[in-house]
Write a structure and sequence with these properties.
The protein has 266 residues and is an all-alpha fold. The protein has one domain (7-263). It is 66% helix and 0% strand. It is built from 7 helices and no strands. It has helices at residues 49-73, 79-95, 101-130, 135-156, 163-186, 201-230, 237-263. Helix 4 crosses helix 7. The protein is globular, with a radius of gyration of 19 Å.
């Protein structure tokens, strides 16, 4: 069994047999008998590709709706509080051993506010400097193209998802976020910190690396979803898949938005 670099998928059903133990139902799934620690087989129907598509579509629709509303309304001051709420919700979803569609949709709504606010702040800055108002549209287009491209790569088998590949990508992911944290701390002591986010050559390289890591993370996410489907995971597991894909998409969009702003003089 392969693991995934996406922390959102750490909460897929765990137990004996099948992918990640899909022969047992975690608390919160229909059919889980808590008298036996939720170890009895679930009576829920197995998850299908359609379930993943529909749940992901709903989640992203909520994110897009709140993001667009925040961006157009100019309520960008909500960005920081929404970011904090989104982080808390993500931690609860990841570490709470039960499926909660309302909580996942709440996370999507809050992250939409975050994306709308950041897009407005960076987009307006770029527009003042260059007169161009296309930054956000370009970032959205780039995100969609990268996602579609990685789906094609996965479906054609151009890149195989192996345990070694997963370990390598997980290490790269941990390294990237570690550098972000160090850069943030360094900012308090040195202007620009490690210069990973100041728009210079090093910042451009770092954003490209982050975009690459986020893009290849989709391959592992797709593979985790495929294995869950083949193993007969409960239908509600599709909400976890939707959450995991949303987390990756949010990160990818922000990195693309940031990279484009560098090239446009932000």
């Amino acid at each position: 069994m392969r693991t995934t670099s996406n922390p959102a998928f750490r909460n897929l059903p765990v137990g004996g047999g099948g992918y990640a133990g899909f022969n047992s139902a975690p608390a919160g799934f229909p059919g889980a008998d808590t008298r036996y620690g939720g170890a009895l087989p679930t009576t829920s129907r197995p998850m299908t590709v359609d379930d993943v598509v529909i749940k992901t579509g709903i989640t992203l629709a909520v994110l897009a709706a709140t993001g667009t509303a925040t961006y157009l309304s100019g309520l960008w001051v909500l960005t920081l509080p929404a970011m904090l709420v989104g982080f808390v919700l993500a931690m609860v979803i990841i570490f709470k051993r039960m499926v909660s569609p309302p909580m996942i949709l709440a996370y999507a709504a809050v992250e939409g506010v975050v994306l709308g606010g950041i897009s407005g702040l960076i987009g307006s800055t770029v527009e003042r400097v260059t007169g161009s108002s296309s930054l956000v549209l370009e970032a959205v287009t780039g995100t969609v193209l990268v996602f579609a491209g990685m789906l094609v790569v996965y479906k054609t088998g151009a890149v195989k998802v192996t345990p070694r590949f997963t370990k390598w990508l997980t290490g790269a992911l941990i390294g990237a976020f570690g550098l972000m944290v160090v850069n943030l701390i360094a900012n308090f002591f040195t202007p620009g910190g490690l210069h990973l986010r100041d728009g210079g050559p090093l910042a451009i390289i770092f954003s490209l690396v982050c975009i690459g890591i986020a893009a290849f993370s989709f391959l592992i996410d797709f593979d985790a979803a495929d294995e869950a489907i083949r193993a007969g995971a409960p239908e509600k597991t599709a909400w976890y898949i939707a959450f995991g894909l949303t987390v990756t998409l949010v990160w990818l969009y922000l990195e693309i938005l940031r990279l484009l702003s560098y090239f446009q003089g932000e």
